[in-house]
Amino acid sequence: MKPAAFQYFAPRSLDEALDLLAEHGEEGKVLAGGQSLVPAMNFRLARPRSLVDINRIAALDYVREEDATLRIGALARHARFEVPVAAGALGALLPRVARHIAHLPIRVRGTFAGSLAHADPASEWCLLATTLDAELVAARRGGTRVLRPAEFFAGALTTALAAEELLTEIRLPLLGEDWHTGFVEFSRRAGDYALAMAAALLRLEGGRVVEARIGVGGATDRPLRSAAAEQILVGSDGGRDAARAAADAAAQAIEHPLEDVQAGAEYRRDLVRAMVERAVAQACG
Amino acid sequence: MSWVGRKLPRYEDPVLLQGRGRYTADLADGARALRFVRSPVARGRILGVKAPLGATVITAADLADVKPICARLDRPDYVLVAQPILARERVTYVGEPIAAVLADTAAAAEDLAELVEVEIAAETPVVTLDQALAPGAPQVHDAAPENTLIDARLETPDVAAAFAAAHEVVEFAFTSQRQAAMPLEARGAVAALDPATGRVTLTASTQMPHLLRTGIADALGMAESELRVVAPEVGGGFGQKMALVPEQIIAVWAARRFSCAVAWIEDRLENLTASAHARDQRLHLRGAFDADGRLLGIDADVLCNVGAYSSFPATCGVEPLMALADLPGPYRVPEYRVRARAVDSNTCPMAPYRGVSRPVITAAMERLMDCAAFRLGLDPLEIRRRNLIAEFPHTSVTGVVQDGGSYREAMEAAAGLVDIAAFRARQQQARAEGRYLGLGISVFSERTGPGSPAFAARRMAITPGFERVELAMDPSGFLEARIGSSPHGQGLKTSLAQLLADETGVAPDQIRVISGDTDRTPYGWGTFASRSLVIAGGACKLAGIKLRDRLKEVAAQLLEAAPSDIDLGGGRAVVRGTDLGVEIREIARTAYFQSHRFPAIAETGLSAVATYDPYGTFSNACHIAIVAVDLATGQVAIERFVVVEDAGRLINPMIVEGQIHGGVAQGIANALYEAVVYDDGGNFLSGSLADYLVPTMAEIPTLEIHHLETLTEASVTGAKGVGEGGTIGAPAAVLNAVSDALSPFGIAIYEMPITPQRIRQLLRDSRSSPQ
């Protein structure tokens, strides 16, 4: 339970951090909140030769609205989202999601961007970024690029980030008042990794769903949007029958469910069905 | 006013709550770090162990003079299997220690342990009961054919007749998955050699310092007095820390061999993988009932997967033999046939775990009662009324004598508190709305404070039982009580101080209870088997009476009165009916400094010793759980949990309730959450607290606790033990409640833990809609 030896760097600026990441390449690892990395190092499952601790780069610690997006800097901690940080439907949704993330001490330390870079299949923020089709800003020495979740998440604990890149900012679209949201997840104990979760974002006009974003997490190696469920919901009233049909479709559409001691394939589909149905009901409730 | 019966805040708490408690790991400063290289495979032949040059690495070859751990049981059916301190030729479970390394820091020791190369020719292991008992299965040990270490049987003459005469025979297999005791503080040992005396002090996280000293001294061939064992603050044990383990023996061996201090501080992965497990049981249970629901006989086949070795001192008989003796529990069982086996396997060895077998057998018996009630169309309360023991003393079919028990009273009280009729109405209403609620009852007895006669019946070569207490008042009137028991979180010191205060007149805050140091305390057996309050408490009372008489002797002379006219209390001795009195501290001072005036107490001064060794006594309780089952996810939520407990005289009701709280939480964990999982290859799949699901505060409901206080003459204090009852009773209540909730689907639960995934599977397999 003691990590293997490593070198430790604590840069004061983004440029300095990017230089270090470029220099150490595959042997370097970014340390932000450390809530996943440090336990993995203590188990010696992760053995980075060099840690680049970004916690002293104050410029990365922000959450602000800009150009109809919520911009989340690399050092914004989970706990920051327990109270509304934005107006409208997104502002209301984020605290409902944040409270499902692990336990308070972890939320106080862990970061939104760190969750995305870690890409745990059960990460709430990864699901939300996918459902909202967030913009993910990756910086490296000499430039930045913007990725979308579909290309960013490459599998469990795997992303398209290069070793010398740092995920500096996440941009979530602000949602208008006509958006209705639901988020539910299932875990055996409070604060555990979700065995399945669902986010339902529905735009309603005159009692009809005109736009739907249904995200499913914790059930496959990376979060996904359920096109089948979305199709069923658009044009419906979002009521019980539509929710149930959408949930069935979402569950059936899961191709390679995660399987582990707590939940095999069949049970995972059961949970996806229950979560999608409840998320839609919550959004329309 | 009596100190006994008060909810006195625990003297133990301020230090613990302020973070000033010193646990084994806090006492490891300056010691070299000891780390174990453990087997990565469940079964295999060791081909070689290669250590890096110049490193301090200990292997079995270095331990030629160290005796293996041998837990002896004087039974013809017991197969003795010696546990090597470090694996020599074979490995028998994942996590078995193969080598030990010493380094300057824990991190360096972990680095070094990684560099030790162990070559093992892996073989197919036997992991499950079925694998171990399959015809032609590989033997875990050459000495144990059919992988069976104990095969105990008992049969009354007319079992067959009872079943033949039965109106209804209820039969099922009940399974409990393996569980881990999960103390907050993992195990640890700091061993330091005193170069001046050659003695070793072992500071260890243990429940049994004296037995640990015996076990280690025997293994190393040293006199017990050459070893001092200290149990500092111990962060829970639950039975896991009442076993002699190789790691502690190596720590003492290394301190002597290398003339230094060494520290082994177990990490959570080691604790989960390689400390000790429990509860891996399967029962095949048959119950014969007459048309009125009266139990005519029980036929039980109990299989316990006890892992690779037999733990010292409790032995691998701890679960099967407890099941054999205590399965009838609170019920009249006229005829009984039982076969109870300890089956070894390539898994981590068992140790006792709070409740020892009874959480499982109680769950099975309580399921049996509910199933029989359902078949016979009886109310679950009614069938229990007809079968609970009501006349005492009661000698069970297995020879266990119950001095008393308020089974009926506790059950009726609990049922009244819950208002079962109102619940049934609410349950119907909820079902109509698609919500499934259930109510489960559990009635049980808890054998507590067994003395040496009870353990002798189990034929353990080392027969625990008595407790001795040494009281000494110092010249300032402060009282020290040195006990052989070794509490580790129970609040025993506060309870004992309350008992002593009533006998001696000294306020509890002027009494210090000393435990957990073999240099300071009389030989005792430690804290387990719900024994310390009963036995050490009884000894305290008996010693307190002796000291009281000595104090009265001195006071009488100082006050010029007869000893029989002296009352002690409030820190004073007074002549009854007068205002004549003297402070106890003045009595103490005079007794020491004017000793020539008190020839009557010349032999002892103001000290007293007493030993207590009772047969034991039974506490009992009724638990009622109300649950809601979420059909879509299979999740069980406990809405309400009621406990009516009878622990005899309550010395400190708050501490009793604390024991119930913790016990019920562990029982709920057993029922719904915790399972140690191996794959078929014997690989360990529960190696972190993300995988081994210890429930949190969020999963444990508020408990409603009520007390009956039936005094017993089976203990001198009138108190009964209460350390294990919560754990024993809670699983049955929860499983019965879940079964009740799912009864419209024809689902009955015969396993623990019952997980959401499993409930979904049962629902899928059952008729798709409720009846």
Question: How would you summarize what this structure contains?
Answer:
Chain A is an alpha+beta fold and 285 residues long.
The main sheet of chain A comes to: 5 strands, antiparallel
What proportion of the residues of chain A is helical, as a percent range? 25-40%
Mean pLDDT of chain A: 97
Oligomer: heterodimer
Report the count of strand segments of chain A: 14
Q: State the helicity of chain B in percent bands.
A: 25-40%
Can you walk me through this structure?
The complex is a heterodimer of chains A (285) and B (771). By secondary structure, chain A is an alpha+beta fold. Chain A is built from ten helices and 14 strands. Chain A has helices spanning 14-24, 37-42, 88-98, 104-109, 112-118, 124-131, 149-152, 227-233, 240-253, 265-284; strands at 7-9, 28-31, 50-53, 63-66, 69-73, 135-140, 143-147, 153-155, 158-159, 166-173, 179-186, 196-205, 208-217, 224-225. In chain A, the strands form four sheets. A five-stranded antiparallel beta sheet of chain A has the order 4-5-10-6-7. In chain A, a hairpin with a 2-residue loop joins strand 4 (63-66) and strand 5 (69-73). Chain A starts with 6 loop residues before the first strand and ends with a helix. Chain B is of the alpha+beta class. Chain B is 29% helix and 24% strand. In chain B, the strands form eight sheets. In chain B, strands 3-5-1-13-10-11-12 form a seven-stranded mixed beta sheet, sandwiched between helices. In chain B, helix 5 crosses helix 6 (246-257), helix 9 (358-376) crosses helix 10 (380-387) and helix 14 packs parallel to helix 15. The radius of gyration of chain B is 27 Å and the shape is globular. In chain B, 56% of the residues are buried. The model of chain B has no long low-confidence stretch (mean pLDDT 96). The chains are: A alpha+beta (285), B alpha+beta (771). Chains A and B meet through helix 10 of A and helix 2 and helix 19 of B.
